[in-house]
Amino acid sequence: MQWHHLPLGAGDDSAARLTAIADAFTALFRSAGGPRTMALFRRQAGEGGIDLYFTPECEVHAWPLLQECGAPPCAPPALTGLELLVGHNEITYYLTT
Q1: Taking the model in full, what pTM does it have?
Q2: 23-55 burial, b if ≥16 CB within 10 A, otherwise e?
Q3: Cα distance between residue 86 and residue 38, in whole Å
Q4: Mapped to the 3 state alphabet, what secondary structure does the chain carry?
Q5: Which of 11, 19, 40, 73 has the highest Cβ tally under 10 A?
Q6: Source organism's superkingdom (predicted)?
């Protein structure tokens, strides 16, 4: 399983899309029973954009959302600057062990 990345540009459309993705992800996270290693992160990107990162566990529980959003696989992101949007606070422990 791999990480997935979705860049969102700046603007109102991106803010609305971020909210829709976070809401859909939250519903999938809850329906999956809140897996410890399933999470959605964000990081500020250049020119006011936002990068979203989905942990590898998302392939199991949120595959349709990853496909719908068009989030391709990527290398694991550096943890610096990542902000947890949906998931358990201790996720960084699981990502570093």
Answers
A1: 0.92
A2: ebbeebbeeeeeeeebbbbbbeeeeeebbbbbb
A3: 8
A4: CCEEEEEECCCHHHHHHHHHHHHHHHHHHHHCCCCCCCCEEEEECHHHCEEEEECCCHHHHCHHHHHHHCCCEECCCCCCCCEEEECCCCHHHHHHC
A5: 40
A6: Bacteria
